[in-house]
Amino acid sequence: MKRRQRHMLLEKLETRRMLSSVIPVGEFRPIDEVGNNVANPTWGTAGDDLLRLAPTNYADGVDAPALPDDLSARDISNILNNQSDPSDPSQDLATLDANELTDFGYVFGQFMDHDMDNTPTGDVVDNIAVSPGDPIGPAALPFTRSITDPSTGTSTSNPTQQPNEVTSYLDLSQIYGSDQATADALRTFSGGQLKTSAGNMLPYLTTNYFTAAQLTQLNAYLGGEQNQGPLSMSSLFATGDIRGNENLELTALQTLFLRNHNMIASQLQADHPNWSDEQLYQTAREINIAQYQSIVYNEWIPAVFGASAMPAYTGYNPSTDAAIANEFSTVAFRFGHSLLSEDIARDGNNGQSVADDVPLSEDFFDPNLLNPADVVDPFTGETSTDIDAVLKGDADGISQASDLLAVSDVRDLLFGNAGAGGQDLIALDIQRGRDHGIATYNQLRVAMGLPAVTSFSQITSNVAVQQELEQAYPGGVNTIDAFEGGLAEDHVAGSDVGPLFQAIMINQFERLRDGDRFFYLNESFTPEMQQIFSEGDTLTKVIENNTSITNLQSDIFKFSASISGTVYAATGRGDFGRGSSGMSGITVELEDTDGDVLATTTTDRSGRYSFDQNSGPSDNPDIAPGINVTGTYDIVVEYPAGIRGLTADSTSTSASVSISRSGINVDNMNFDLGTGGVAQGHSCDFNQFFDGTHFNDDAGSMSVQSMLNDPSWWQTQS
Ligand code: HEM
Could you tell me if 511 and 618 lie in one domain? Predict the structure, then answer.
C-alpha cells in the first residue's frame, strides 16, 4: 500500500472510532435488541411499530384500506403478473435475471427478510374478490388484515400503525430468536451449542428435543411455528423465526447458519477449554452474525443493487433508527416474489443433478425433503437430500427476472400442496399494501425524493407493460399500487430494481447498518476472532465450511459460464485441424440434453463461436436460453449445403460439454469440417477420431500420413 493511501485509511478509521462507541470484546448484542440504541432502547426491537417513509393513505384517513376504487388485487395480478405461456398456460414463460443473479439472490433475500420483519395477521377479514371465470375462484381469496398497534387508528392525526414482531436488526434472529425464551429453548447449554437432530439438522418440534414447557415457549409471543403444509407440527423443524419451514431452500439456509454457529463454538472451545457455555455461545453468535452481515453488505447488496449503491460506512450513528419501514416490508422488499424459480434444483459437486427438481409448489412446509438419509417423502414422492444438494443447486443457475411476472407456483398454487387449493402471493402483496394504508406509487415516489410520473410510459419503456398498466389502472397513474408500480419500473443501471425500490431499500439497509451499535465493523475482535471471522466472511466459505460442497464460485450470487471454439475447414490433403483456417458463417447451436435449442449463432471471420449466459433466444419460450445453469450442453454444428463434413452422418456434428459451476469457461471446443481434397465425400466422426496428428479408431491409431498412404483404411471407414 502506498504511504498516502495508508495515511488516508488510518484517518478514516480514526474518524470512525471517534464517532462511534466501539463495542469492546465481551459485550454482546441483547437477544431482544432492547438497548441496542442506548438513548432509545426500543428502537428496532420486537413489537416496535414499523416506521413510515410516506404519510399513510387510508381511505378514511384513519384505518380503512387504501385505493377502494381500484380493481380487485387478484384482477390486477391477473393482468400484470401472470407469467404463464399464453400458448400453453400449463407452463410458465422462462425469464432470466438481467444481472445474472443466482437463485441465492432470492433465497438469501427471504432468509434476510425473516430476520428483519414479520407482521402477523389478526382477525379482521377483508377477502380478495375473484372475477367470474378465474380458475382460482369462484370463492374470494381469503385475506385477513394485519395486527395493529392498539394505541393507533384513533383519528386522522393518529392513523393505524402495524408493529414488527421480530427484531429489525440484521442479527440472525431467524436462527436465535427475537426473545429470550425462544433463544434459551434452542440452546443445549453445553459447549455453547445450539440443538440439532440426527445428521446435523435442525431439531424437530418434539419432546425428543424440547421439554413440554419449551415447546410452548418457542416463539410463543407469535403463536409458535407456522404450518401451512401437509405435515403435523412434530415433523417440522424448530427455528428462531416462525417461518423457518416455509420452503426447502429457506430451511437449508436456516440449517446452514445453525451449523455455522456450532462449528464456531467448537472451534472456540478447542482453543479455550475453560470458557463457559455462555461465553462460547455469545462469542460464536457474535462471529456468526458478523459473517452474515459481511455477506449482506459485501456480497448480497452489491449483487442486487449494484456495486456502488451503498454509501461507505462511517461508523455507528446513535441518532439513526434501524427500525424497518412499512414501505420496505410491505412493498419494496417483496420484489423477491418476482425472482422465484419454479423448480428447486438439487446438484452434486460436479454441477449435475443428484435428485429430481422439486416443484416450488410442492415444497411449502415440507421439511421431509431435507434429510441426509435419502428417504422418499410420502407427500411429494421426491427423495430427500442433505442441505448440500439444495445449496449447490441454488448456486448453479440464474434466477427468474426481477419484473412484474411471478411463476404460477406462487401466483396460483401458493400453499396448495397435494391438491389442497392455492393462493395468489402477488394478490396478497397488493392487498397487504392497501391494508397497511401504504401511499400510492406516485405519493411514495415523491416521499422518496423522486418526481411523480404523469404517464405510464414514464414508468417503463416496455410498451406492452405500459398498456397492461393502463388496463389495470383505468383511474390513471395516481391510482397505482406502490408494489405494482415499483415492480414495473425500468431498472437503475446495475441494479435489479427501479428507482423507487432502490431508494426504499438503500434507505433501509443504510439505517440497519449505521443504527446498529453492534454492526460488525463497530465491534472489537481479538486476533483469534478475526481469524475465525475471515474464514467464513463469504457465503461460499460458510457453505464449504459446513457441507461436503467444495466446487462453488467465489461470488455465489452471480452465475456466468461460457463455451467457445473454432470451426475449422480442412483445406487440402491431410491439412486438418490446427493447420487449417477457420470457417466463417457456419451455424452453431447450443442445445440441452433433450435436444432443445437454447441459442443459435454463426461463426465469425476466424471461424470462432461462443455461447454464454446471455446467449439466446431459445426455440421454446418456456425454456431458459443460453448457459444459465450447470449441467451438460451439446454444441451442434450445422453445415451449409455443399460442404461435406468429416462426421458420421455428414450433415451435422456435435460435442458434449459439462459445466460444473459458475465461472467455468470452456474454450477450444473445436470442430473440423471437410471442404475439399481428400476429405470430400468421406465421413467419420472427426472429433472422436482425429486428435490433431492421428486418427484413432477401434483398430488402433494411425497418423495422417500413413492414413493417406493406405487406401484400405478409407474403405473400412467410409
Ligand atoms: C418460496 C418463496 C416465498 C414464499 C412462499 C413467500 C411467501 C410469503 C407470504 C405468504 C407472505 C405473506 C403475504 C401477506 O399475506 O402479506 C410473504 C411476505 C413477505 N415476503 Fe415472501 N415469500 C417467498 C420469498 C420471498 C423472498 C425471496 C423475499 C425477498 C427477497 C420475500 C419477502 C417478503 C417480505 C418482505 C414479506 C413481508 C413480511 C412481513 O414483514 O410480514 N419473500 N411472503
Answer: no
Check if 336 has its Cβ closer than 6 Å to any atom of ligand 1: yes
Residues 376 and 431 in one domain: yes
- Indicate which CATH number applies to the domain containing 359: 1.10.640.10
Ligand 1 centroid–CA 332 distance in Å is 11
The pTM of this model reads 0.90
How, if at all, do strands 121-125 and 144-146 pair?
A: antiparallel
Q: Is 145 left (phi over 0), alpha (psi -120 to 50) or beta?
A: beta
Q: What is the mean pLDDT of residues 525-536?
A: 97
Question: From the CA of 427, how far away is ligand 1's center (Å)?
Answer: 12
- pLDDT > 50? residue 717: no
Residue after which a domain boundary falls, among 516, 544, 572:
544
Direct distance between the N- and C-terminal alpha carbons of the chain, in angstroms, rounded to an integer: 66
Angle formed at CA 256 by CA 253 and CA 258, multiple of 5 degrees = 110
* Ligand 1: centre distance to CA 457 (Å): 29
Structure confidence at residue 229 as a pLDDT band (50, 70, 90): confident
Nearest CA to ligand 1 atom 3: 337
Residue 18 maps to a domain: no
pLDDT tens per residue, range 656-688: 999 999 999 999 898 877 643 333 223 333 444
Ligand 1: residue of 49, 97, 113 to mutate (most ligand atoms within 8 A of CB) is: 113
> How far does the centroid of ligand 1 lie from the alpha carbon of residue 111, in Å?
10
Q: Is the dihedral of CA 312, 316, 319, 322 positive or negative?
A: positive
* pLDDT of the residue at 367: 92
- Atom of ligand 1 minimally distant from the CA of 410: 5
Residues 363 and 481 in one domain: yes
What element of type H or E holds 485? helix 482-488
